[in-house]
Amino acid sequence: MTAELVRGQNHTLPQTRLEIRVSAGSPVVAGATLGDERGTVRGAEWVAHPASHRVPGLEVSRQAAADHRLAVDLDALPDEVHRVTVLLALPMGAGRPGRFGAVAAPFVAVTGLDGAEIATFTLTGLDTESAVSAVELYRRQGGWKVRAVGQGYAAGLAEMLADQGVAGAAELAASIQEAVASGLARSVTPPPRSPDGERVRHPAGPAASPDDGRPAAPAQAPEPLADPASSHTDLPGGPINYAHPRRQTSAPPPPPPAAPPTAPGQPAQPVAGDAGGWSMDERLYNQIWGMFEDLARAVAAYRSAVDFAESRMDQELDRTLSDPRSRIGGAGDRAREQARAKRDELTGRAREALDRDLAQLAAESAVVEPALPAAYAGWDNPVWHGYRVPMEIPMAMRIGDLRLPEGNGLRIPLLVRLPLERGIWIDSGRTGSEAAAATSGDQLRRLAMETAVALAARLLAVHPSDEFSVHVIDPAGSAAAQLSPLIRAGVLAGPPAAGAEGVSSVLAHLTRRVDLVQMALRAGAADALPPDLDTGEQLLIVNDFPHGFDDRAVTQLRYLADEGPSVGVHLLMVADREDARAYGPVLDPLWRSQLRITPVADDHLADPWVGHAWTYEPLRVPEGSRVLDQVLALVAAARGAGYR
């Protein structure tokens, strides 16, 4: 039976191999400290955090996320350790909540490896605190207990670490936040939630955790899943449910009814636009993000089940090897075979459940993909053959596809909200992916610029006429071939800027626009803007950064990256970070402020729910297709005479 703790209450732990699950309404940093008999942390090596995620007996997440799973093996802790304290902190950065009072109350559950909850704690009553000691596991009379702590710290992570006796707490806290910032830079930004349009899930087994960070009221039992095909295996610690929660949505107006089941006991046929929303585009947007989240959690359930099966086998093998009787005759061999057979059975059942979920998502993808509007569609979608310049900006745009290795090739469209909330950096360097390693440096730079041109063309295509302008900085003129579709169509605001003078001129023009619009907004005098100022959205494509940039130009570019998106100036950079290594950490904020994508497949993006590393694939124009030229020609015709 689960113990629902309140602040200060404790509960005995019946086992020593545990998971600590954290659910929050927004990304949080999860870490843990090891303390001695007095609760003192003897050094940084006794702190597990995203920059050093493993210590003996303990492993935490590598990045900030809304959901965390911390693995704990109390028997593997050093003998000097008598206390394990789980820490939560809000990541620092512009636009992020600075206090726990501004986010949903975090929920912590201590579970066995089978997912059965032992104790839970909801951290209510927090206000100005930006860091909190959530729960602690501590030795008592030869056993272990868990205590609900909920001690908050308004001064943040540094104060919390110092309170536990960590030497150099401020420096350690800064390094943790630096690692978190790097992790958040690679995380896909989830869509904003609304009270009337948020997805509702029902917890079930080891895969379940509330996706909105708000646990159900303690007096309410979780609603069971309506899935007769779910697989259960009764184990000493409780049942494992390998099914993942199904989606339910409620938003005005309600989604259309699903098609009736094809046969008794069979799931309903998927319908395009079955999520909540006011328009079909919004429903499809929410449905795609729902598929993204479903795949993330389904794979998390599978991986958790496989980890549990491996852990159970290891425990059974350890017991077998520690029993002298197993060394006589074939008892030991039989026990090992039985342990491995049980592992294979559990893993097989988990895979069967995952395959069912994948089949459902694949069927949904098959009906959703053909129904997508141009902004959400791939370049090979027939919707582009009927393209017309839109009258209004769509809510989002597709910039690539995401997949997981367990997904059997299932691809989820990666959608970003419009107007862009941050810049995009196309990494033209030799990254660690197999595709990048097999591609020459020159070819990577060419592919990166082709990706930038395709994204710019898509941005032009999804905006109304004359409401989006594209500027290009190409200091050495090395991207002339890749830029030719934009140049031929005459859709650029001016010729690509080359040389130091051209770079300076474009940056000065856009910096002036940002300054003037910001001043007008602060003063409430938008009508005072100069008549020659283009107030439409602006995109700056920068090729081969930092070549051609002096220190002043670098400063201006950083300014545009930080301040531009809020007033309609967006950055699309093609760069190899290694080329800018001479600047050292000065440019770290620039790289982190942008969404990094690659011109070839690379597994560098993380989802905001579980933190899986997803393989990103850029959108490619089909070989021999003229769709890009045809779309740009229609854009140019709608704009009338432009630069040529």
Describe the structure.
The chain is α+β, with helices and mostly antiparallel strands. The protein has eleven helices and 23 strands. The strands form four sheets. Strands 1, 2, 3, 4, 5, 6, 7, 8, 9, 10, 11 and 12 form a twelve-stranded mixed beta sheet that branches. The longest helix has 43 residues. The protein starts with a strand and ends in a 5-residue tail after the last helix. It comes from Streptomyces atroolivaceus. Belongs to the CAPAB/TerDEXZ family. This is TerD family protein. InterPro entries: P-loop_NTPase, Stress/Tellurium_Resist, TerD.
Which percent range fits the helix content?
Answer: 25-40%
Integer count of domains = 3
Tertiary shape:
globular
Task: Determine and state the CATH class of the largest domain.
Answer: Alpha Beta
Instruction: Find the CATH topology of the largest domain.
Output: Rossmann fold
Broad structural category = alpha+beta
Provide the gyration radius in Å. 27 Å
Helical stretch count? Answer: 11
Distance between the termini: 73 Å
Q: Biggest sheet, open or closed, and with what strands and sense? A: 12 strands, mixed
Write the CATH architecture name of the largest domain: 3-Layer(aba) Sandwich
Tally of strands? 23
Q: Poorly predicted ranges (pLDDT <50, ≥5 residues)? A: 194-252
CATH superfamily of the largest domain: P-loop containing nucleotide triphosphate hydrolases
Q: Average pLDDT value? A: 84
Instruction: Indicate the proportion of strand residues.
Output: 15-25%
InterPro entries: P-loop_NTPase (IPR027417), Stress/Tellurium_Resist (IPR051324), TerD (IPR003325)
Family: Belongs to the CAPAB/TerDEXZ family.
Organism: Streptomyces atroolivaceus
Protein name: TerD family protein
